[in-house]
Write a structure and sequence with these properties.
The complex is a heterodimer of chains A (about 425) and B (about 625).
Chain A: E1 2-9, E2 14-19, H1 28-37, E3 46-49, E4 52-59, E5 62-68, H2 74-92, H3 97-102, H4 104-114, E6 115-116, E7 119-120, H5 125-131, H6 143-154, E8 170-183, E9 189-203, E10 209-214, H7 228-237, E11 245-248, H8 254-260, E12 263-265, E13 270-279, E14 287-296, E15 300-309, E16 316-325, E17 330-337, E18 341-345, E19 350-359, E20 363-372, E21 387-394, E22 403-409, E23 417-431
Parallel strand pairs in A: 8-23
Antiparallel strand pairs in A: 1-2, 1-5, 3-4, 4-5, 6-7, 8-9, 9-13, 10-12, 10-22, 11-13, 14-15, 15-20, 16-19, 16-21, 17-20, 18-19, 21-23
Helix pairs in contact in A: 5-6
Chain B: H1 12-20, H2 29-43, H3 53-59, H4 65-78, H5 83-86, H6 90-96, H7 102-114, H8 118-131, H9 137-153, H10 155-161, H11 163-170, H12 176-192, H13 202-211, H14 217-226, H15 235-245, H16 254-268, H17 274-282, H18 285-290, H19 296-312, H20 332-345, H21 351-361, H22 367-383, H23 388-399, H24 404-420, H25 429-433, H26 442-454, H27 462-470, H28 478-494, H29 496-512, H30 517-532, H31 537-544, H32 560-567, H33 573-577, H34 581-584
Helix pairs in contact in B: 1-2, 2-4, 3-4, 4-7, 6-7, 7-9, 8-9, 9-10, 9-11, 9-12, 11-12, 12-14, 13-15, 14-16, 15-16, 19-20, 20-22, 21-22, 22-23, 22-24, 23-24, 24-26, 26-28, 27-28, 28-29, 28-30, 28-31, 29-30
Classes of the chains: A alpha+beta (about 425), B mainly alpha (about 625).
Subcellular location (chain B): Endomembrane system
GO molecular function (chain B): clathrin binding
InterPro entries (chain B): AP_beta, AP_complex_bsu_1_2_4, ARM-like, ARM-type_fold, Clathrin/coatomer_adapt-like_N
Chain lengths: ~425, ~625
């Protein structure tokens, strides 16, 4: 398993160094700095030198690094590194150099608790916050109290305390969908899919037993015969959605789901990701984009971009941005838009066309020209990166998914209020030209 | 809250004063501050801090958990450098092992077991035996890891103490977290031990699967690793176990998903019903694709393992090839692996779509990626016969860009296409000949020289072209020199009048003016052949222009044995490098399939891999991204 966790700032200075296993030299931190941080062409997040392996993720302005000296479970390593990021967020709002320096003793305490001998232990914020606290609230913990904590940390339900009380019992359900599109220059959809996540913010007393229902028909285990496509289309018409796959938070009873497709669980307190899903059939694309780009000789590029909202007129999308790439040797740009603002960003080699409010059904057009410098050096072909689009749209799902019900049962039999919200965002929404 | 200021270089003398001064120190604020500065300096590798060893140890006795934790951290860091002084901390720590609070007992246990000094090791044996039976599960779990730590530090001490037996008892503990900790400890020990081996029977394995649902995500991964020590004795038993594990594929933790796949793939070796196996592996597809919406690094791990699994079961994602199309902003390591998967899944049905996609990649910025895309196009021509024409058209389209590295890469693959389909696509030679100037890499030059030699009778000015290459003969790498030698001989055989002068010159260079034995030997061989068989040119022709062994892209595939070993290591570092564990981590035990009546192993699985005489078709894709350094 892991031998050490190291945290660096961008300059390569060590901010935290926690060694879990014998056999590492203290100079090990220099090795990573030289090989990765000072290296301008890092081509992998995993680097093995001799028998020592460094796995790293970059987050904000820091490097989080795991060191291992055996054939370790690399999936576990990266999941754990991202868990450290999540813990940092839960404790300090965000995990950056400043937060680490300001809380380094607490981080050492956390690292001692969440990992033993290189094996991840309980990493649930809810439990950890019971006994590892930011300064000021810390008091010495009594023995009885600590027994409760240890039960929690090793219990079957390590993610929830049993003494939670709310005056108002509420659950907020957020369905976020990232719609991914890759469209070819000729307008054919090369790839369209939805990566969805359902975030719950549960403010419920006691030990609530929850049941969650969607309008889904899971694809798994269905015989894949010739006419399954038409069946799925029929289902979509009948108001159900076909999810390619789901993955659940650890609180969900996977055995139950496997047996009868019910999503049942006792939620952690507060915010957590209940499930992730993926859909690839009958994707509703909220926007269609047509791009025309003409390279005129070596000195000019002409653009014509039309974007149309396909959703109903009652809805509107916000933060709509189209990033239209320009060649590296662009000298000046002229633009004309029917809505919003277009601005050339030389540092990004792109024109950003922003439309703050995009009403359903409407269509807007961008036209422009980029004048190019005719450089003396050898003419390098322009790689023509795709036009990339961003947006966010409320009360719409690209997969067609709907939350049917969320039932909460608790022995005190309280009633609870549930709220549901749907948001579709652009994941990687790209149009080649 | 601005502890950041402590990250300034501190002086030992000054800090000692802070720790030892007998001025009033309410709630130990002053000493806490000093210790924080010491910990910060320790992190910055300020070696002056070692001098403070006795002063820091004195603080352990203070009644403050916060101070204690900092002292322990200091102790773990520097104990090796001051073993005698460190021993002084032992009584306090041992005392804490009997504290009323389970948190303190565990904290102290974690600390003592982290200190690999003989005195600490010996002092820990007895308390550890007791703590393995502690009423509190949190302490028992910590004790399990404690035994593993102690074993790593002093194996004989542990083996004669009966502590391993104590950990074994934890496997029937009522608390699932404790069970999984016990398993993790035993797995850790037996992975390195010469004499000990972990073996789990059906009943126990069955119980482990049952408690999976009651464990946190990490504990689940420990149980999944341990399940590899279960050897099914009966095919039905193995199938049942696999069926019961499959719901874990829906877990959100990638390590749980890949661990489940690892165990199920392992179990398939013991299942006799082929359709049941197909049913099981078919369930891997969707969860693997879902992992592609996780952060990039986890996507990368998922992709490497997809590539590994698809080698054996390409059908599970055959229809999902689009999910492997690169996004413009994917990091390079993801793009390269996706490209390898796309190549693997290419078939007659999807080749048109794939070629369009690869053509797109060939116009990207990253040179290495572009090269790989071009190579893949060429290799597809060899892999899929019916697509050869389309692939060649795409390559010619790319050659027309006249970008040097694209032309060179295309030249290399086109040579292989000629090898695979002799006398079929020679019409494109003229296009290649237009781009001779842009060739400056040995591999591309050698490929072009081979083409000229092979088709010397069809290329009008083949002698002039060769002559141009020969101009720099002595500066070329051995690869190019050998190619030039052979090509010149071929020219002479096919067009004696035009080649005579050149061949004499080259043979002279190769035999008299070179230090390289390979070149010299080959030179002499040709010389002998040409001079002795002067009356019998047919024999020379037969030797030099003989039919080439067929080439295929199958040689890229991992051989059966490596594949089997890798599939037992899914999710591990070796799956990133796609190399046998022993090649990367020396001294690691190789995993293999245990004998059992249920084990299916037909000898046909282990035929020696075919003979691939071609030396350039193999290894187009370096499997490790060039990062692997061997010791």
């Amino acid at each position: 398993m892991l031998s050490a966790i190291l945290l660096y700032n961008q300059k390569g200075e060590v901010l935290i160094s926690r060694i879990y296993r014998d056999g590492l030299r203290r100079s090990i931190s220099d090795l990573f700095r030289i090989q990765v941080i000072s290296n301008t062409d890092v081509r992998s997040p995993v680097l093995t030198l001799g028998t020592t392996t460094f796995c790293h993720v970059k987050h904000e302005n820091i490097y989080i690094v795991a060191v291992s000296r055996q054939n370790a479970d690399v999936a576990l390593i990266f999941e754990f590194l991202y868990k450290i990021v999540a813990l940092g967020r839960a404790y300090f709002g965000k995990l950056d150099e400043e937060a680490i320096k300001n809380n380094f003793t607490l981080i050492y305490e956390l690292l001692d608790e969440v990992m033993d001998f290189g094996y991840p232990q309980n990493t649930e914020t809810d439990t950890l916050k019971m006994y590892i606290m930011t300064e000021g609230v810390r008091s010495e913990i009594r023995a009885e109290e600590s027994r409760k904590i240890t039960m929690q940390a090793t219990g079957a339900m390590s993610w929830r305390r049993d003494d939670i009380k709310y005056r108002r019992n509420e659950v907020f359900v957020d369905v976020f969908e990232d719609v991914n599109l890759l469209m070819s220059a000729t307008g054919t959809v090369l790839r369209a899919d939805v990566a969805g996540q359902i975030i719950l913010r549960a403010f419920l007393s006691g030990m609530p037993e929850c049941k969650f229902g969607l309008n889904d028909r899971l694809l798994i285990d269905q015989p894949d015969d010739g006419n399954s496509k038409s069946k799925r289309a029929a289902k979509a018409a009948a108001g159900s959605v076909t999810l390619e796959d789901c993955q659940f938070h650890q609180c969900v009873r996977l055995g139950r789901f496997d047996a009868d497709r019910t999503i049942s669980f006792i939620p952690p307190d507060g915010e957590f990701e209940l499930m992730k899903y993926r859909a690839t059939e009958n994707i509703n694309l909220p926007f269609t984009v047509h791009v025309l780009v003409n390279e005129i000789g070596r000195t000019k590029v002409e653009y014509q971009v039309a974007v149309k909202a396909t959703f109903g007129a009652k809805l509107f999308a916000t933060n709509v941005v189209l990033k239209i790439p320009t060649p590296l040797n662009t000298a000046s740009v002229t633009t004309h838009v029917t809505q919003g603002k277009a601005k050339y960003e030389p540092s990004e080699n792109a024109i950003n066309w922003k439309i703050s409010r995009f009403t359903g059904g409407s269509e807007y057009v961008f036209s422009g020209e980029a004048e190019l410098l005719s450089s003396m050096t050898k003419h390098k072909t322009w790689s023509r990166p795709p036009v990339a689009m961003q947006f966010s749209l409320m009360m719409f799902t690209s997969s067609g998914l709907l939350v049917r019900y969320l039932k909460v049962f608790e022995k005190s039999n309280y009633s609870s209020v549930k709220w549901v919200r749907y948001v579709v965002r652009a994941g990687s929404y790209e149009i080649r030209f | 809250m601005s502890d950041a200021k402590f990250f300034a270089k501190g002086k030992a003398a000054e800090l000692r004063l802070e720790l030892t001064s007998d001025k009033k120190d309410k709630n130990y604020v002053r000493r806490k501050t000093a210790l924080k500065r010491i910990v910060a300096n320790m992190t910055m590798n300020n070696n002056e801090m070692i001098q403070l060893f006795p002063d820091v140890l004195d603080c352990i006795k203070l009644d403050s958990l916060e101070i204690k934790k900092m002292c322990f951290l200091y102790l773990i860091n520097y104990c090796r450098l001051k073993p005698d002084l460190a021993n002084k901390a032992l009584p306090v720590l041992l005392d804490d092992l009997r504290d009323r609070s389970p948190l303190i007992r565990a904290l102290s246990l974690r600390t003592v077991s982290c200190i690999p000094l003989p005195a600490f090791n010996e002092a820990l044996v007895d308390p550890l035996g007791r703590l393995l039976r502690d009423p509190d599960p949190y302490v028992r779990k910590t004790a399990a890891f404690g035994v593993a730590k102690l074993w790593a530090s002093d194996a004989p001490l542990v083996e004669k103490s009966g502590l391993i037996e104590g950990v074994n008892q934890l496997l029937v503990d009522s608390n699932p977290t404790v069970v999984s900790a016990g398993l993790a400890a035993l797995t850790d020990i037996t992975d390195k031990s010469e004499g000990m081996k972990l073996a789990i029977g059906y009943q126990d394995a069955s119980k482990l699967v049952q408690i999976l649902g009651d464990c946190n995500e990490w504990s689940q991964t420990y149980i999944l690793s341990a399940l590899m020590a279960y050897t099914p004795q009966d095919p039905a038993e193995a199938l049942l176990m696999a069926e019961r594990l499959s719901p874990r594929l829906q877990h959100s933790n990638a390590s749980v998903v890949l661990g489940t796949i690892r165990v199920i793939l392992y179990l398939t070796h013991y299942i006799s019903d082929d359709s049941a196996i197909q049913g099981l592996v078919k369930r891997f597809g969707p969860p693997l694709v879902t992992l592609l919406s996780k952060p990039h690094e986890i996507q990368y791990v998922a992709l490497r393992n997809c590539f590994l699994i698809l080698q054996q079961y390409p059908q599970i994602l055959q229809n999902d090839i689009k999910v492997f199309f690169c996004k413009y902003n994917d990091p390079i390591y993801i793009k390269v692996t996706k490209l390898e998967i796309i190549f693997l899944l290419a078939s007659e049905d999807n080749i048109k779509e794939i070629l369009r996609e690869l053509r797109e990649y060939a116009s990207e910025i990253d040179v290495q990626f572009v090269r790989k895309a071009v190579r893949a196009i060429g290799k597809l021509a060899i892999k899929i016969n019916t697509a050869a024409r389309d692939c060649i058209d795409t390559l010619l389209d790319l050659v027309a860009t006249r970008v040097s590295y694209i032309v060179q890469e295309a030249t290399v693959v086109i040579k292989n296409i000629f090898r695979k389909y002799p006398n079929k696509y020679e019409s494109i030679i003229s296009v290649l000949c237009k781009n001779l100037d842009s060739l400056d890499e040995p591999e591309a030059k050698a490929a072009m020289v081979w083409i000229i030699g092979q088709y010397a009778d069809r290329i009008e000015n083949s002698d002039e072209l060769l002559d141009e290459f020969l101009f720099t003969f002595k500066e070329e790498t051995i690869e190019v020199q050998l190619a030039l030698l052979t090509a010149t001989v071929k020219l002479f055989i096919q067009r004696p009048a035009k080649g005579q002068e050149l061949v004499l010159q080259v043979l002279k260079w190769s035999t008299e003016e070179t230090d390289n034995p390979d070149l010299r030997d080959r030179g002499y061989m040709y010389w002998r052949l040409l001079s002795s068989a002067s009356g019998n040119a047919d024999i020379t022709r037969q030797v030099v222009m003989s039919e080439k062994p067929a080439i295929s892209v199958e040689s890229d595939k991992l051989d059966v044995r490596t594949l089997e070993e890798l599939s037992l290591n899914i999710g591990s570092l070796s799956s990133i490098y796609l190399k046998p564990v022993s090649q990367i981590f020396k001294g690691t035990k190789a995993r293999h399939l245990e004998q059992s009546p249920a084990l299916r192993r037909s000898d046909s699985n282990f035929e020696s891999p075919g003979f691939y005489p071609n030396y350039t078709a193999a290894n187009y894709f370096s499997t490790n991204g060039g990062d692997l350094l061997s010791e």
